[in-house]
Structure formats: structure tokens, C-alpha cells
């Protein structure tokens, strides 16, 4: 069983996924140069928040996610789109004008063949000349400012503890999530994310057949800097 099976559920979505994404969706549309009537591939679409916001701009989403409940929620939230429940490392559509993988949905395996397969599926989903946007963790910032424990107070009296360690042998960030509820119950879950520096992400995009064009610090299009929490790569399918 992969670690993400059972981790992404309604409780995670309610507390950790952004509720309002209209501004970011507009930024994605501009970066991908999408126009009304064109198709966008939403890889790891979750509950379809970004797909719904893009559909409101007249852009037609095709999404995939491994969580069946998320896919059902996406279908309900965005009837204009098409959504599929499948492993993103083995699913692709075709002839999309642009594609995206956002909100830390990449690098879940220590096996880079799996991670590369995801990018290859994104490439196959694009028409020649189509752009792909990868938005994820900036591990240059994580490594410089590494914090073994982070405690966050959430709404409704919830407290999230994240205990992190760097697994240098496999090149992974391993985390233990403890969500403490007001009724004293707890939710425990382990996650891991591949440590890839921004340049290495660009190299993996190129290995997947996507030509890297720009590296940015956020979806607003600002230039990348080491202290950015996120990194955005824009790449294009050339053939």
C-alpha cells in the first residue's frame, strides 16, 4: 500500500487544501497561455478546486486523481470537466493545450522511475507546443531552514504536529503527521517526499520530453529565489 492511500481524505482536504483558488487559477491560465475553449490536464486534481476555477474562465479541464472520493467531489463541483480515478503515473489523456501539477503533488516515491512516469504521462497528455506547469516544494529553502518539528494551530481547536527527518540515503523528506483533536483523539500518518532541488526538477522534466523554459518563485510569475517556499517550472512539449 502506498503511503498516500488513506492520507488524502475529506479531513485532509478540509484543513489543508486551499478553499479559494480563483486568483491562482487565473495566474495558471496566464502562465500556460490558455484561452476559453481550450483543454487543460489537471494531474492529481484532488477535489477539482483548480479545475472548477479554470472552468469558470471557459477552460475545459481533464483531471486524474488516485482518490476515488476526491474524483467524485471533482465531478460534482465541476460538471464541465472530465475526471478519472487512476494512478497518475500510469494515466494520460491527449491533445490538451496545457497541463499542470500543483500543490505538492509530485515526488511521492523514492523510485525516480515512478516520478518520471508521472511527467511522461503529463507530456503525453499535451499537444505539441503545449505547456506544462509543475508547482511544488522548493527543497533548497527546506534544507537551509530545516525544522525537525513544526506545530500549527488550526481552526476548531485542532493542533497539527509535523515531525520531519531527512533521509539522505534515499533522498527523502520523511514526516510524521499528528493531528490532535479537541476530544483528545489523534490522527497519525507518515508521509515521504523526494528531495529534488530546482535544477534537478528541470532535468527530470527534460528527461520526460518536456523542455524547461522558465523557473519561477510562485504562480504570480515572480523570479525564483532560494528563500521562496515554492518553485514553479514551466516546460513545453516540443514534439
The CATH class label of the largest domain is Alpha Beta
Main beta-sheet strand count, sense and barrel state:
7 strands, mixed
Kindly report the spatial arrangement of strands forming the biggest sheet.
3-2-1-4-5-11-10
- CATH superfamily of the largest domain, by name, is Vaccinia Virus protein VP39
Identify the CATH architecture of the largest domain: 3-Layer(aba) Sandwich
- Mean pLDDT across all amino acids: 95
Shape, per Cα inertia axes: globular
* Number of structural units classed as domains: 2
| CATH topology tier name of the largest domain | Rossmann fold
**What's the number of helices?**
7
Query: Radius of gyration over alpha carbons?
Result: 17 Å
Number of DSSP strands?
A: 11
End-to-end CA span: 36 Å
Could you spell the SSE succession in H and E letters?
Answer: HHEHEHEEHEHEEEEHEE
Residues in helices, as a percent range: 25-40%
Percent range for β-strand residues = 25-35%
3D structure, described in words:
The protein has 239 residues and is an alpha/beta fold. It has two domains: 10-138 and 195-237, Vaccinia Virus protein VP39 (Rossmann fold), CATH 3.40.50; 141-193, Single Sheet (N-terminal domain of TfIIb). Helices cover 27% and strands 33% of the residues. The protein contains seven helices and eleven strands. It has helices spanning 10-16, 22-32, 49-55, 68-77, 112-125, 139-144, 198-207; strands spanning 39-43, 60-65, 82-85, 96-101, 126-137, 149-153, 159-167, 172-180, 186-194, 210-216, 230-237. Strands 3-2-1-4-5-11-10 form a seven-stranded mixed β-sheet, with helices on both faces. A four-stranded antiparallel β-sheet has the order 6-7-8-9, with no helix packed on it. Helix 2 packs across helix 3 (49-55). The chain is globular, with a radius of gyration of 17 Å. The mean pLDDT is 95.
Amino acid at each position: 500500500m502506498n503511503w498516500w492511500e488513506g492520507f488524502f481524505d475529506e479531513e485532509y482536504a478540509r484543513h489543508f487544501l486551499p478553499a479559494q483558488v480563483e486568483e491562482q487559477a487565473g495566474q495558471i491560465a496566464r502562465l500556460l497561455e490558455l484561452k476559453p475553449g481550450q483543454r487543460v490536464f489537471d494531474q492529481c486534481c484532488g477535489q477539482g478546486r483548480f479545475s472548477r476555477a479554470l472552468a469558470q474562465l471557459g477552460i475545459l479541464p481533464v483531471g486524474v486523481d488516485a482518490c476515488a472520493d476526491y474524483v467524485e467531489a471533482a465531478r460534482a463541483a465541476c460538471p464541465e470537466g472530465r475526471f478519472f480515478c487512476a494512478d497518475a503515473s500510469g494515466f494520460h489523456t491527449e491533445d490538451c493545450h496545457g497541463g499542470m501539477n500543483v500543490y505538492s503533488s509530485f515526488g511521492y516515491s523514492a523510485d525516480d522511475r515512478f516520478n518520471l512516469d508521472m511527467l511522461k504521462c503529463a507530456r503525453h497528455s499535451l499537444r505539441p507546443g503545449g505547456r506544462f506547469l509543475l508547482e511544488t516544494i522548493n527543497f533548497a529553502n527546506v534544507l537551509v531552514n530545516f525544522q525537525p518539528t513544526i506545530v500549527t494551530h488550526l481552526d476548531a481547536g485542532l493542533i497539527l504536529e509535523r515531525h520531519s527527518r531527512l533521509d539522505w540515503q534515499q533522498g527523502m523528506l520523511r514526516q510524521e503527521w499528528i493531528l490532535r483533536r479537541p476530544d483528545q483523539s489523534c490522527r497519525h500518518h507518515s508521509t515521504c517526499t523526494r528531495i529534488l532541488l530546482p535544477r534537478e526538477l528541470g532535468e527530470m522534466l527534460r528527461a520526460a520530453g518536456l523542455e524547461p523554459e522558465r523557473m519561477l518563485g510562485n504562480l504570480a510569475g515572480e523570479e525564483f529565489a532560494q528563500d521562496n517556499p515554492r518553485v514553479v517550472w514551466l516546460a513545453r512539449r516540443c514534439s
